[in-house]
Specification:
The complex is a heterodimer. By secondary structure, chain A is mainly β. Chain A has no helices and eleven strands. Chain B is mainly β. Classes of the chains: A mainly beta, B mainly beta.
Chain lengths: 112, 114
């Protein structure tokens, strides 16, 4: 049982480049989330989705975009990478509101 | 809005010591409360949870009790091991309904020395 899978695990981007962080889950969860984790700051919600075709902004959405065409996949897009987007990104899913989330292994992104 | 405050780290203990990591929260409504653990280079794993007042969550020797009167969810373990070294996050669910994920504390880095 794979759970939540993120790719890539590591990436270095130059300022202004774009990339997509991939996230897929095999638990048939409707709810999916993207967080970023910065040292000493906990996790901040970027975007979330309550089902295929439905997405909404979280606490720190600027500079990011998402889509949710299937239940399984929830990619995160960075269009114009900036040094402030250097962070560790986690995708998560849950089966209902107010329940525990299951996390992927994370993507460590460095923008130089 | 909702918020979670947990004790600053790092917390350094000797093996077999008693552990307490404090967590308090601010929320409207009736949130569920969670403790997650993150080992180096890995994602977050659910350690335990409690969904209503006075519930006690427990797992792997760790315990936490949902105290509504003090808005707290302190993590405890009677005898820690070197393998417990990790970062621990306290979190709560959206207390006012909605599906906008969990609110996390900043994390407490726990270091257990042999």
């Amino acid at each position: 049982n794979a759970g939540v899978t993120q790719t890539p695990k590591f990436r270095i981007l130059k300022i202004g480049q774009s990339m997509t962080l991939q996230c897929t889950q095999d638990m048939n969860h409707n709810y999916m989330y993207w967080y970023r984790q910065d040292p000493g700051m906990g996790l901040k919600l970027i975007y979330y989705s309550v089902g295929a075709g439905i997405t909404d902004k979280g606490e720190v959405p600027n500079g990011y975009n998402v889509s949710r065409s299937t239940t399984e996949d929830f990619p995160l897009r960075l269009e114009l990478a900036a040094p402030s987007q250097t962070s560790v990104y986690f995708c998560a899913s849950s089966y209902a509101e107010n329940t525990e989330a299951f996390f992927g292994q994370g993507t460590r992104l460095t923008v130089v | 809005g909702d918020s979670v405050t947990q004790m600053e780290g790092p917390v350094t203990l000797s093996e077999e010591a008693f552990l307490t990591i404090n967590c308090t929260y601010t929320a409207t409504g009736y949130p569920s409360l969670f403790w997650y653990v993150q080992y180096p280079g890995e994602g977050l794993q659910l350690l335990l949870k409690a969904t209503k007042a006075d519930d006690k969550g427990s797992n792997k020797g760790f315990e936490a009790t949902y105290r509504k009167e003090t808005t707290s969810f302190h993590l405890e373990k009677g005898s820690v091991q070197v393998s417990d070294s990790a970062v621990y996050f306290c979190a709560l669910s959206g207390s006012g309904g909605g599906a906008d994920g969990l609110t996390f504390g900043k994390g407490t880095h726990l270091i257990i020395q042999p």
